[in-house]
Amino acid sequence: MQVLVLLLWMGALLGYGNSQNVANNPEGSPAAPDSTGEPVEEEDPFFKVPVNKLAAAVSNFGYDLYRMRSSASPAANVLLSPLSVATALSALSLGAEQRTESVIHRALYYDLISNPDIHGTYKELLATVTAPEKNLKSASRIVFERKLRIKSSFVAPLEKSYGTRPRILTGNPRMDLQEINNWVQAQMKGKIARSTREMPSDVSILLLGVAYFKGQWVTKFDSRETSLQDFHLDEERTAKVPMMSDPKAILRYGLDSDLNCKIAQLLLTGSMSIIFFLPLTATQNLTMIEESLTSEFIHDIDRELKTVQAVLTIPKLKLSYEGQVTKSLQEMKLQSLFESPDFSKITGKPVKLTEVEHRAGFEWNEEGAGNSPNPSLQPARLTFPLDYHLNRPFIFVLRDTDTGALLFIGKILDPRGT
Fold it and tell me: What CATH number belongs to 2-16+216-317+364-412?
């Protein structure tokens, strides 16, 4: 009977999976009444907090960006910190006239939230997610073509809300690349490698979003339990990777039979958590899971998962990404920013977005805050052993519990990848 009960409450998680509704309702607003006249569900109080509502909006932009990147790289790992890209776009919108501002705001889902002070709220969001205890470093920058005269009326609010000043290129590619590298190194405390890419030619506006995260588990892993184990790349191929193990891990767990995956949440210090989506088979297409990802879907998962004790194995992970997300943004209805935008609040000269670069580093290992589980986490009593082995392709979401903000997202097809 207890086995049946467990399966029933796992099945109850299907209630959070109506991706059609949440995908079209990024603000978490009440749905329209249905034809039966049933009462409309109240808006979740969590999303009534302005900073949380803004976090949901930019996170939904982040899930859109991730889907674009993943579909463009179906056979490769994907690593993104969408918040850093969203921050650069949001900052750029300060210099946009109404037509261009609307394009950016729709992509960031600002058009679905009523907040007269978006940029002031964004400042609060950044302060929350980059607090020292979060272990997240995130920064964005706007770089302009050489000799451009920038209006002080743009620089002042940019510095006030986003804590950054624009950079004007010198026109010397080697010096400009060195300056950008020095800025990245200073912002990331040397945690991200210096770029080996050349400066793009004919830059008008270059956006740069960088982020680094090295998490600390609430309960650390015993390094003596780490060993080389098989990671199933597909049904036939395996790779030996370092796998961390905990035979009595306390985690939050659920099974989604619609998405055909097991979901687990591990807590990190600083009110952070990672949610894993593990397909039941190594060959399962991840697209259905990816299409379900929205801020509201993840928030509902966070409320519904049950605390259990399980046998856990998880690969040690150290990934990095350096490249453009320009094409992905163009496919997200932002093409006009690269063609004929109106940034007359920035300068009197016609300028347009040329390139959007992203650099990210992400890692976890055995490190954690304590040797034993938090006594406040009481696992459900099960009559059968539960295991959760991240030994095949999976998706993970790093989320800030305080605001609900999506900070990192990854598709791990091979943990050995960079």
Answer: 2.30.39.10
